[in-house]
Amino acid sequence: RLRASDTLRPTKIGSGGRIVLLKGKTAVISGGAGARGIGFATAKTFAAQGARVAILDLDAAGAAKAAAELGPEHVGIGCDVTDKADCARAIGEVLAATGQIDILINNAGITQAIKVWDIDPESWARIQDVNLKGVLYLSQAVMPHMRERKAGAIACMSSVSAQRGGGILGGAHYSAAKAGVLGLAKAMARELGADGIRVNCVTPGLIQTDINAGKISDDARVKILENIPLNRLGVPQDVANIFLFLASDLSAYVTGAVIDVNGGMLIH
Ligand code: NDP
């Protein structure tokens, strides 16, 4: 375990003289098969920082392809995060392949832009299942291993939608699910802290990925930018960098935190 004084030093300097933050660590990332998504950007970033990465995605072939793109030591496994047994099976496969899991990034998610009066039981359930229940099930699947090792970093994907309500791309059910992620992550942070496991959240603003591709009109874009002091939409790397901080020992004394990645959208 790190002493306070250790956190002031770079974790490890690689052979090229650059700081390597995740050397010797294994990271599981859900929803990482999408080539333009936040999950894959995070996987690439972690791999570049020395981690061995396991990409879990509904699309098994896409996960395997994404992992192969990173290099032979990385693995891609099919996993439906809404299915508790499937999460346990997938984490078992990761452990069989890698022997350890140090980091879990709960990134998988779906959205649906509908009005609150149009939300039916099926769409409510589907949005809660992937965005919220998936975080619980995948976190539960890594817990026995992390608790036994008395170490682990879990970071969860929430959204600005949880904080400001809705938005042009997500409905009220999505806001509710992502707000649920904040409560779930904080509760996990409290319960798992004594086992050396940190749990944190990110709340991105509008990030350009497949989830919103082609859905933002030029007019909407102008309106959105009026409310973003940094005057641009986010890119996946903006979020991947924060996940890197939360996954690494640089954040050794950070748990139960929520980090906004939104260009200043919520300054008030
Ligand atoms: P993507 O659609 O590119 O990524 C979402 C990934 O989750 C996809 O690879 C998808 O797989 C996967 N996924 C969906 N359902 C499941 C499931 N049941 N089990 C396993 N994997 C699943 O979009 P983003 O990269 O934008 O989204 C990543 C996360 O960031 C999501 O949680 C999203 O809600 C959140 N977010 C995004 C913002 C944005 O503006 N882009 C803003 C705030 C939060 P497949 O494609 O194979 O179905």
UniProtKB/TrEMBL annotation:
* GO MF annotation terms: oxidoreductase activity, acting on the CH-OH group of donors, NAD or NADP as acceptor
Q: Where is the Ketoreductase domain?
A: 25-205
Q: Which residues form a coiled coil?
A: none
One Pfam assignment? adh_short_C2
Q: What GO terms describe the biological role, i.e. biological process, of this protein?
A: fatty acid elongation
Q: Per the similarity annotation, which family is this?
A: Belongs to the short-chain dehydrogenases/reductases (SDR) family.
Which PANTHER family does the record match to this protein? BLL7886 PROTEIN, SHORT-CHAIN DEHYDROGENASES/REDUCTASES FAMILY MEMBER
Record-linked NCBIfam families: PRK07231.1
Q: What's this protein's name?
A: Short-chain dehydrogenase/reductase SDR
Origin species = Xanthobacter autotrophicus (strain ATCC BAA-1158 / Py2)
